[in-house]
Amino acid sequence: MNEEREKQELEKLRLEVLKLDQEIKVLGRRPIFHPSAYIPLIAAMITVVGGAIKLNTTTTERNEAKADAQVAEKSLTSAIAKASPGQLKIVNVRFRGTLTREQIAGLQQKFNQSGIITPRAERTPQIETSAISYYDDADKALADSVAAQVMDYFANLGCPFVIAAQKSATSINPGTVNLAIYQSCN
Question: How far does Cα 5 stand from its chain's mean position?
C-alpha cells in the first residue's frame, strides 16, 4: 500500500516538473512562485535569528554575572581586610525600576570603599518602595551610614531621593542591613 502511494506522489511530482518545464518554454523565463512557496524559507530564517538573539541574551547575562562576581569579590576582600573578626558589615541590595546593573555596581563599589560587603544585587519586582531595614539596635548606625551613602550616590547621578533606616520586625543577622531601592534614574 505504501509503495502504491509513493508511486502516486512521485507521479504527481513528475507532472509538476513537466508543467514547470512547459511554462518556462512558453514564457521564456522562470515562473513566478506564489508567496506561500517562500514560507518554509522565511520560517527557517526566523528560527536562525531567534537562536542568535537567545545566544546574545545568554552572553549578556553571563557577562553581567561575571561583573557582579568581580564586584562581590572586591567587596569581600576589601571588607575582610578592613574589619576585625566579628565586625563584618553586610548590605543586601535588591532593586527595581529603570536602574541598570552598572549603576548598582557603582553603589556597591561605594560601599566597598567604606568596608561594607555587598553580595550580588538582586533585581526583583517585589519591591514596593525604597527602604533600609535593620533588626539589631547595634546596626542602626550602619543603616544610617548606608542611607547617607545611597542618597549621596544617587544625588551625584542626578536623580536624588530620600531614604531612611527603619527597624525591621523580621530578624536579620547582626551586622546586616537590607537595602531595597525602587528608583528610576536615567
Answer: 53
Q: What is the pLDDT of residues 81-94, one digit of tens each?
A: 665 555 778 899 99
- Cβ atoms of 115 and 74 closer than 8 Å: no
Sign of the C-alpha dihedral, residues 74, 77, 78, 79?
A: positive
Record the pTM: 0.56
Instruction: Give me the residue label for grid cell 535593620.
Output: 134
For 19-47, b where at least 16 C-beta lie within 10 A, e where not — what string? eeeeeeeeeeeeeeeeeeeeeeeeeeeee
104 CB burial (10 A radius; 0-12, 13-18, 19+): buried
DSSP, res 160: -
Q: What are the grid coordinates assigned to 48, written together? A: 536562525
